[in-house]
């Protein structure tokens, strides 16, 4: 008599489900890491772009013994300022300039990008001091927004309402 042994020709449903669960767990661990890497890349790009603009301002200062009154896009590659990775494409001049009695330095919204309002331009520039700052998106609370603003702009402000240096 022949024994009736079943030949295995494929995977059972239980084996397939175990593999799917393992892949799901791995995906759940990897996806947040990838989005965090994207955020870090955006922050790195913002810092690099701010430094490129600041270098151009300092170069102008060395040549003319004064800071430029406006930022000239011709100083940069492709004849335009480096982008603020947190900002949207901006029609026209992406730089808001300080006036000598500008109180906007102490208003929290002036640290945040808001394209729907007139203070939402991606950059601040102070022609008297040569300071350039990148605005950041609202992070949901003042502490996180301020931490991002400080990190990108190399500042150490302790309050969202604190004056800029």
UniProtKB/TrEMBL annotation:
One Pfam family cited in the UniProt record for this chain: N_methyl
UniProt-annotated location(s): Membrane
Membrane-crossing segments per the record: 12-31
Name listed for the protein in its UniProt record: Type II secretion system protein G
NCBIfam families linked: IV_pilin_GFxxxE
GO cellular component, one term: type II protein secretion system complex
An example Gene Ontology biological process: protein secretion by the type II secretion system
Topology versus the membrane: Single-pass membrane protein
Domain of life where this protein originates: Bacteria
Keyword Glycoprotein: no
InterPro entries: Bac_GSPG_pilin (IPR000983), N_methyl_site (IPR012902), Pilin-like (IPR045584)
Protein's gene: xcpT_4
Record keywords: Membrane, Methylation, Transmembrane, Transmembrane helix
């Amino acid at each position: 008599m022949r024994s009736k042994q079943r030949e295995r020709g494929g995977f059972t449903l239980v084996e397939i489900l175990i593999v799917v669960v393992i892949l799901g767990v791995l995906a759940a661990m990897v996806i947040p890491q990838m989005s965090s890497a994207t955020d870090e890349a955006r922050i790195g790009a913002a810092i690099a772009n701010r430094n490129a603009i600041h270098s151009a301002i300092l170069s102008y200062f060395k040549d003319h013994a004064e800071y430029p009154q406006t930022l000239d896009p011709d100083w940069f590659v492709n004849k335009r300022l480096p982008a603020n990775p947190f900002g949207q494409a901006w029609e026209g001049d992406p730089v808001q300039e300080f006036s000598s009695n500008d109180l906007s330095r102490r208003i929290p919204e002036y640290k945040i990008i808001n394209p729907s309002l007139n203070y939402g331009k991606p950059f601040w520039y102070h022609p008297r001091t040569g300071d350039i700052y990148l605005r950041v998106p609202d992070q949901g609370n003042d502490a996180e927004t301020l931490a991002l603003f400080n990190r990108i702009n190399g500042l150490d402000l302790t309050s969202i309402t604190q004056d800029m240096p």
